[in-house]
């Protein structure tokens, strides 16, 4: 139950971050700079936090796996997400996000030899149906400002994120979440630096007063809230949940975006949205309860 609460909270944080990212992009901040600052600030926070925790020695083999996870889960993932979000519409992004559990299901079955049951397949399809119903039934489902390139970037972003969920499963059973995150974000920070070096030079000459307060609040949220805290929760959840189960909670993100739109008067609640909600959580339930009795659920350190 703890793992489900952790991953649910993480996806709520991710969902809130989408309109925040949109605001930062619309305010003129380059996407490459946002991605780098997100990784760099979080990297510093995790390394500082690790100073107060018992030190864990990481094997050379696992360092290589951590590097791959850092590129898939943070570096490539975040860069493609922010750049793609600038070129596509939130509607298209939500539709593509609905395919994440399918990517995770296929990768987990190949890499982890995870059993693919009829119950699990049904759960994934119900989740996809709920996500699509929410998007197409929204009053804001006019797909404007989209591009093939932007949609492709968002799609690849979710593919590599699904790969990260699958690959990091074994690491979650050997190391603490902080140890995993500090190495992942270090790799991602180094990888993202070349893409943002030019823009960072210009930003470094700006006084803090040149930034609007909402920009600073937005950067604070996307670095601490939807990255530092959210990624920590995702890694902790992988200690007791399968990658396929974790990816199913990705459907919570468009739900959160819809709730925010309703709260600020940009959308209204409807029977269609209620049906979408029921489909999504029915799908999550089917996937989370689809396991063989002899299969272990928890990975202990």
TrEMBL record:
The chain crosses the membrane at residues 5-24, 36-53, 65-87, 93-112, 121-142, 148-167, 174-196, 216-236, 248-265, 271-288. Belongs to the EamA transporter family. Its main location: membrane. Keywords: Membrane, Transmembrane, Transmembrane helix. GO terms for cellular component: membrane. This is DMT family transporter. Pfam families: EamA. Residues 1-135, 149-288 form the EamA domain. It is a multi-pass membrane protein. It is found in: Membrane.
């Amino acid at each position: 139950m703890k793992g489900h609460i952790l991953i649910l909270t993480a996806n709520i944080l991710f969902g809130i971050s989408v309109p925040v990212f949109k605001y930062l992009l619309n305010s003129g901040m380059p996407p490459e700079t946002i991605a780098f600052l997100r990784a760099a600030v979080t990297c510093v926070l995790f390394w500082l936090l690790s100073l107060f925790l018992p030190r864990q020695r990481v094997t050379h083999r696992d360092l290589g796996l951590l590097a791959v996870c850092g590129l898939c889960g943070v570096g490539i993932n975040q860069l493609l997400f922010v750049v793609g979000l600038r070129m596509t519409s939130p509607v298209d992004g939500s539709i593509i996000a609905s395919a994440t559990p399918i990517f995770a299901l296929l990768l987990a079955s190949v890499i982890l030899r995870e059993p693919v049951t009829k119950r699990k397949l049904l759960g994934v399809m119900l989740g996809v149906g709920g996500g699509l119903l929410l998007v197409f039934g929204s009053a804001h489902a006019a797909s404007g400002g989209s591009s093939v390139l932007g949609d492709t970037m968002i799609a690849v972003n979710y593919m590599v994120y699904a790969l990260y969920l699958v690959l990091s499963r074994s690491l979650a059973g050997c190391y603490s979440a902080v140890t995993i995150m500090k190495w992942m974000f270090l790799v991602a920070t180094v990888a993202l630096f070349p893409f943002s070096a030019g823009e960072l030079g210009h930003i470094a000459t700006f006084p803090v007063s040149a930034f609007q307060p909402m920009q600073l609040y937005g950067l604070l949220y996307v670095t601490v809230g939807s990255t530092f805290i959210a990624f920590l929760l995702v890694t902790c959840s992988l200690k007791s949940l399968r990658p396929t189960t974790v990816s199913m909670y990705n459907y919570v993100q468009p739900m959160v975006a819809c709730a925010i739109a309703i709260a600020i008067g940009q959308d209204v609640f409807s029977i269609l949205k209620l049906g979408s909600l029921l489909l999504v959580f029915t799908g999550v339930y089917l996937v989370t309860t689809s396991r063989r009795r002899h299969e272990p659920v928890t990975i202990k350190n």
